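About this split. The held-out portion is used to measure sequence recovery: a designer receives only the structure tokens and must propose an amino acid at every position. Recovery is the fraction of positions where the proposal matches the reference. Here is one held-out target exactly as it appears in the evaluation file.
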């Protein structure tokens, strides 16, 4: 199994997550009844927030758009990491691990405070990142080998005083 495939899958899943979040979440229309009433209430009550006049609806839209931008950037990042992992696999493992932790941590939050869709997508993306991590190469990063004195790299020889 090649890490590029799993990073490409993570990229597509993240793009779908972004599209669903943006279209359905940020720009979606509330259902009639309680949802519409809550949205109207959020829009109607303005207050001062650090010198700016805002509503809870402004915060809702703003945070939603921030999440959309973040998901879009992640989708693009995963696609590019899919290229880079072919030559720099061992060096990317820490980045892949951190991205795994990010999406693994999002899953229970999404399940608890939102609904099953974002939870499942976060789990699938985290799984793809985990597989990419474990298939990205196992060698010690050359810089670490040099730092430990396990290899000599003439380009990195320090002048002794």
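Reference sequence for scoring:
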């Amino acid at each position: 199994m090649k890490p590029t495939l799993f990073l490409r899958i993570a990229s597509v899943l993240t793009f779908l997550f972004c599209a669903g979040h943006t279209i359905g979440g940020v720009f979606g229309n509330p259902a009639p009844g309680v949802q519409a009433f809550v949205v109207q209430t959020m829009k109607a009550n303005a207050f001062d927030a650090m010198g700016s006049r805002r509503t809870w609806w402004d915060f809702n839209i703003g945070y939603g758009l921030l999440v959309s931008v973040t998901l879009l950037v992640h989708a693009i990042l995963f696609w590019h990491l899919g290229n880079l992992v072919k030559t720099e696999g061992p060096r990317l493992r820490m980045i892949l691990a951190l991205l795994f932790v990010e999406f693994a941590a999002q899953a229970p939050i999404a399940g608890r405070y939102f609904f099953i869709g974002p939870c499942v997508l976060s789990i699938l993306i985290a799984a793809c990142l985990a597989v990419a991590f474990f298939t990205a190469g196992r060698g010690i990063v050359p810089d670490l080998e040099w730092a430990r004195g396990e290899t000599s790299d003439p380009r990195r020889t320090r002048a002794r005083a």
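Annotator remark: The chain has one domain: 3-156.
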